[in-house]
Amino acid sequence: MNENLRIAVVGATGVVGTEVISTLLDRDFPAEQLTVLGSERSEGEELEYGEETLEVEPVTPEAFRGVGLVLLATPADASRTLAPMAQAAGAWVVDVSSAFRADGNVPLVLPGFNSELLNASFKGRIVALPSAVTTALATLLEPLRQGFGVAQVQVTALMGVSSSGNPGLRELEQQTAALLSGREPEAHVFPQRVGFNVVPQVGPFMANSPWTEEEAGWTLESARLFATKGEVPVVAGTAVQVPTFYGHGLSLHVRLKKPASVDQARAALKGSPALKVLDSPGEKIYPMPSLVTADPTVHVGRLRSFPQSPEWLTLFATVDNAGRGAALNLVEAGLRLAERTA
Ligand SMILES: NC(=O)c1ccc[n+]([C@@H]2O[C@H](COP(=O)([O-])OP(=O)(O)OC[C@H]3O[C@@H](n4cnc5c(N)ncnc54)[C@H](OP(=O)(O)O)[C@@H]3O)[C@@H](O)[C@H]2O)c1
């Protein structure tokens, strides 16, 4: 790591920002080289960083002066303003929001999948990261693609409320408490009550489309990521809001190009260090959100196939949305980018 590197984390008080700070602490990044920034709402808030206390400062162009790397853990509308501001100050910028994922001038990078793009030349100094669901999808599809080819993927993502940040966490807490006290709760963050419910909508719908932005994002981001491998599977699915706090579950049907037995597929998945195979259903061992929190690997299990259609594989996976699906990608991509000299 560049010993003089200064890093700014924007959105440091959020679900993802908090994870970024603890990841940097785990990697012994020095407190005096770290600036934590937020909106005026969190200005002056104090964050513990090991033995040190960091004070959240408001974002201004001056705040980026002398900073080599800016990690943006902010909502997309804020990132659209802040990324160019940080870039203009000369910093490398990694953004975890959806703001630049579809922008052909901005590389879409999943560390460990297509990290080579971080060393390639590209316009500007901004890098986009995929969503947490796409992170899980790409991570588990890649060994299957290498072994058998992947033609098509149908996914249902059961998404914990932390994907809507601190406001999402608060709303599920409040709704659960209200329902347990016999009161009907109000829905503000989510389109419908999520407490003791399951809602087949996460985020807004695309204009004039039956697909939500989250769902359309998986198709587009997978296409961009797998284009770097020269083979793009068709990915489509449904995003479902479930009343859990952390972790996403993915129920998947994968159509392989070459039929594979469950044992062959399991062996391919086991070969990836980015995955943990939990697949002993008789012993009640399978992926669950409660097991994946704070784990940097994507968990996969419940592997099945159907004799009549041996090219289809059915499985279940989980990912720590705020950690593996966001904060680790920010830190890993950012530190690698900061090694670049220009
Ligand atoms: N949560 C996940 O699982 C996940 C996974 C992948 C990607 N993401 C993406 O990560 C980003 C952050 O999500 P989150 O879950 O951490 O949300 P969050 O808990 O709501 O946190 C948002 C953070 O951004 C700050 N912020 C908001 N507007 C700002 C502005 N104009 N200037 C500076 N700071 C601003 C907030 O500061 P204040 O506290 O001052 O408002 C807060 O620290 C979003 O783009 C989200 O889509 C999230």
TrEMBL record:
Pfam families: Semialdhyde_dh (PF01118), Semialdhyde_dhC (PF02774)
InterPro entries (UniProt xref): NAD(P)-bd_dom_sf, Semialdehyde_DH_NAD-bd, Semialdhyde_DH_dimer_dom
Entry's Gene Ontology molecular function annotations: aspartate-semialdehyde dehydrogenase activity
Signal peptide: none
CDD domains noted in UniProt: ASADH_C_USG1_like, ASADH_USG1_N
Annotated keywords: Oxidoreductase
Documented EC number(s): 1.2.1.11
Alphabetized SUPFAM superfamilies for the sequence: Glyceraldehyde-3-phosphate dehydrogenase-like, C-terminal domain, NAD(P)-binding Rossmann-fold domains
Boundaries of every Semialdehyde dehydrogenase NAD-binding domain copy: 6-121
Protein name: Aspartate-semialdehyde dehydrogenase
Protein family according to the UniProt entry: Belongs to the aspartate-semialdehyde dehydrogenase family.
